[in-house]
Amino acid sequence: MSDETNADVAVPEERSAGLAPRHTRRLSDKILIAFHHACDQADYEVAEDLLRILETMLTRRPTTPDGNRRRNIESLVAAHERLWMLKHPEINHS
């Protein structure tokens, strides 16, 4: 998971040049990471809120052509499935 944390760190050359840090992760990716963190902490209410925000972001009309739309929707569906399974453990163990 070190790649996830390192991806949000500004490039050293940008820091030394006095430029504003450039982050490599999209906001939707950061929200998905926060969703999984909320699930790991069993904070399902926050996880649901984050999923709603993510769904809003991914289902509105894109402002730029994005070749990752299918992957984004698949990630959203997988996140919904994870949350459902976490909230219904009695069904998953039968």
Q: Could you explain the architecture of this structure?
A:
The chain has helices spanning 2-6, 12-16, 27-40, 44-59, 69-87, 89-92. By secondary structure, the protein is an all-alpha fold. The chain has one domain (26-92). α3 (27-40) packs antiparallel against α4 (44-59), α3 runs parallel beside α5 (69-87) and α4 (44-59) packs antiparallel against α5 (69-87). The radius of gyration is 16 Å and the shape is globular.
Query: Pairing-aware structural class of the strands and helices?
Result: mainly alpha
Percent of residues in beta strands?
under 5%
Task: Provide the residue-averaged pLDDT.
Answer: 80
Binned, the helix content reads 55-70%
How many alpha or pi helices? 6
Q: What assembly state would you assign to the polypeptide chains in this entry?
A: single chain
Distance between the termini: 32 Å
The low-confidence runs, each spanning 5 or more residues with pLDDT under 50, are: 1-12
Give the H and E element order.
HHHHHH
Number of domains in the coordinates?
1
Tell me, what's the shape?
globular
Say how many strands there are: 0
Summarize the main sheet: none
Structural Rg: 16 Å
